[in-house]
Amino acid sequence: MGSDDESGFVARTISAPDGLRLYARDYSYGESSTFSASPVICLPGLTRNSRDFHQLALLLSRDPIAPRRVITLDSRGRGLSAWDGDKSHYNLAVEAQDVLAMCAALDISQAVFIGTSRGGLVLHLLAASRPDLLEAVILNDIGPALEKEGLGNIRDYLNRDRKPADWNEAVDILRENHGAAFPALAEEDWRDMARAIYTIKDGKIVADYDPAIAAQMQALDLEAPLPDLWTPFEAFRDIPLMVIRGENSKLLTTATVEEMARRHPGMTIKIALGQGHAPILHLRDILATIKDFLAAS
Q1: In which region does residue 274 sit, left (phi positive, over 0), alpha (psi from -120 to 50) or beta (all else)?
Q2: Which of 1, 40, 146, 238 is the most exposed place for a label (fewest CB within 10 A)?
Q3: Is 222 left (phi over 0), alpha (psi -120 to 50) or beta?
Q4: What is the C-alpha separation between 124 and 235, in angstroms, rounded?
Q5: CA geometry: angle at 291 spanning 135 and 195, to 5°?
Q6: 127 close to 232: Cβ distance less than 8 angstroms
Q7: Which residue, among 123, 33, 112, has the nearest Cα to 294 in the 3D structure?
Q8: CA-to-CA distance for 69 and 36, rounded, in angstroms?
Q9: Are strands 21-27 and 70-74 parallel, antiparallel or unpaired?
Q10: 10-147+227-296 placed in CATH 3.40.50.1820
Q11: Would you put residue 105 in left (φ > 0), alpha (ψ -120 to 50) or beta?
């Protein structure tokens, strides 16, 4: 994002199957004929939005050798997508249908998908139901098995819900909550993160999502057994797959990544050094690894 996170894309408004208004950014830089490969579609995490991918989208769409059309989605209830009056619709199955609606509206028959955290869980469902849509998949610090410690960290962070008085305090809050897991981030990276997570409403800086989404996580019972997605994960077997794991992630363990690789022998693994959950994808050598994966897909 840097100094400008509001240019380089076309804003798209899409109707979900139930009529809810969805927002997406379409980084189709230059003429459509510039893009010889299929687009890249980025799906954000639980309480995050399309702005998380802004710098990555600019770098991929403006690559001098192999530019790609990039589309980043605000899932329902996040960013500029409408909040749902029926809070039960904030679930993976509905959000997977929203992705299908977006692809149909933008006339996309196949794409490379990048799913961060919850976005990657949505991709597990799409792999099982619409594998033809997935040319290749990048899972960002997510897999078919989640760790209670990582979920607890997310729940605790959302429960704190401290309201920043200004942008400097927003950065301070993020550092307090995530600094230990993200020593790789520079000052500008923290400010970019703040601008992605927060927005201004009624003159106040607030988190940019429907509070009902956080309430679902806040109510999570970590004493109950956690379900897993190993069965839908098997649907990735014929799809080129890359997994990025934050070196300090508590949600995706090394053991889970190793088991994923055992079940998908061709899987590419990238460790995001100095980052936790979930890694920023344009930093250091992660971008180069993504580009190599895209070129081979």
Answers
A1: left
A2: 238
A3: alpha
A4: 8
A5: 100
A6: yes
A7: 112
A8: 9
A9: antiparallel
A10: yes
A11: alpha
User: For residue 160, is it left (φ>0), alpha (ψ between -120 and 50) or beta?
Assistant: alpha
Instruction: Assign 20 to helix, strand or coil.
Output: coil
Sequence letter at residue 289: T
Angstrom distances, CA of residue 159 to CA of 64, 97, 135, 154, 209: 44, 29, 38, 9, 14
Six-digit token string for 164: 């920043």
Give the tokens for residue 222: 């970590």
Per-residue pLDDT of the chain (297 residues; tens, 9 = 90+): 444 677 899 999 999 999 999 999 999 865 555 667 899 999 999 999 999 999 999 999 999 999 999 999 999 999 999 999 999 999 999 999 999 999 999 999 999 999 999 999 999 999 999 999 999 999 999 999 999 999 999 988 888 778 899 999 999 999 999 999 999 999 999 999 999 999 999 999 999 999 999 998 888 888 888 889 999 999 999 999 999 999 999 999 999 999 999 999 999 999 999 999 999 999 989 999 999 999 998
Q: How many CA atoms lie within 13 A of 75 on its CB side?
A: 29
Identify any residues that bridge with 169 across adjacent strands, giving them in sequence order: none
Residue with tokens 């991918």: 53
- Judged on CB neighbours under 10 Å (0-12, 13-18, 19+), 63 is middle
How many C-beta atoms surround the C-beta of residue 66 within 10 A?
Answer: 12
Helix (H, G, I), strand (E, B) or coil at 2: coil
* Residues across the chain: 297
Q: DSSP for 93-143? A: HHHHHHHHHHHHHTT-S-EEEEEETHHHHHHHHHHHH-GGGEEEEEEES--
